[in-house]
Amino acid sequence: MSNTFHHELIIHCIKCVDISFIGLCYLVLSFVFAVLLDTFFHEDKDEKHKQSTVWLSLKISLQTVLIMLSVYAMRVIVKSIPFVFDGYNGFDHHRVMELNGVVILAFVLITLQSNYGYDLQLLASRFRTAVSSSSSSHA
Fold this sequence. Notes:
Blueprint: H1 3-40, H2 45-50, H3 53-80, H4 102-111, H5 114-137
């Protein structure tokens, strides 16, 4: 086995470990942030139906802003966590594309926030009703 092949194999193995490490960091952080946000925005579903569409829209907007700020904070946190094999055999942890972690962050943050999903569906339902009422009155 040549030195070049051996070196490349080591780099690929380290990269796989690094990608797994990054994924787990993002999973844990996004889980925590999602549960905290969902708890903060928790309301009784009957109360949600009584809220005006403007208030519901503002609440969804605020939650979206907080989700985006959470994503930013998590990316900063994960990028600052040292990787044990950084520099080993020339491996550069900061060049791994998965450090951006947008896919897993978005998936976990949105999936675990049942209140956010419910509010979005409620707003979409109101919008569909308004559109169908408007189109039927013009017919």
